[in-house]
Task: inverse folding
């Protein structure tokens, strides 16, 4: 069923983005199996124009990474969120901040501590924000248990599809393609410019 939905989107990629929501959503989670899909830009529109608050499943582990990088003498912000994320950490061989976060989140956190470690943290954040009437967008959903949490909490899961990037083109790690074959509530096709993507997000919201 998931693959059939993807094919339907591919056949209709030239049409205008339809309105997706009949009522105002208060929890949206974004997924793409490849880097550079536009998830962050979609989330940015929701935050800046629709009053959403951004929550990340990886938020806690990113803070842990910042502490580690600062402890060994580096300015962590550019390494965690900026242009140095893909560059090897000086003095640490080929280890990049992205790889550090991937292994901290997956191999250590999920595989050795608890499979639901990060979603337990995110669940409490989301619950607290929604209890205060604040809509939430999650832009780093990657695993089945994360998708399960979003559905359990009544949220909408959106797959962002960018046709000019494939899984083979993207840097591969378990955390990048964990939901590739799963079904999603909606698909958002990013096949143009950033301005066109922003327009599609606005059209999808319909308000």
Result:
């Amino acid at each position: 069923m998931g693959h059939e939905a993807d094919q339907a989107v591919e056949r209709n990629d030239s049409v205008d983005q339809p309105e997706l929501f009949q009522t105002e959503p208060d929890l949206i989670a974004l997924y793409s199996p490849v880097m550079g899909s536009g998830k962050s830009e979609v989330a940015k529109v929701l935050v800046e124009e629709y009053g959403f608050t951004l929550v990340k499943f990886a938020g806690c582990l990113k803070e842990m990474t910042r502490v580690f990088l600062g402890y060994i003498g580096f300015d962590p912000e550019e390494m965690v969120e900026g242009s140095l994320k893909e560059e090897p950490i000086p003095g640490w061989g080929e280890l990049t901040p992205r790889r550090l976060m991937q292994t901290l989140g997956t191999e250590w956190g999920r595989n050795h501590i608890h499979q639901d470690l990060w979603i337990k943290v995110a669940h409490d954040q989301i619950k607290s924000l929604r209890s205060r009437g604040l809509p939430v967008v999650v832009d780093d959903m990657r695993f089945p248990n994360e998708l399960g949490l979003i559905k359990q909490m009544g949220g909408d899961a959106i797959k962002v599809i960018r046709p000019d990037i494939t899984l083979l083109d993207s840097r591969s790690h378990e955390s990048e393609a964990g939901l590739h074959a799963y079904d999603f509530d909606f698909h958002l096709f990013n096949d143009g410019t950033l301005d066109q993507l922003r327009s599609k997000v606005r059209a999808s919201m319909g308000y």
Remarks:
- Residues 3 and 12 are 15 Å apart (CA to CA).
- The two ends are 29 Å apart (CA to CA).
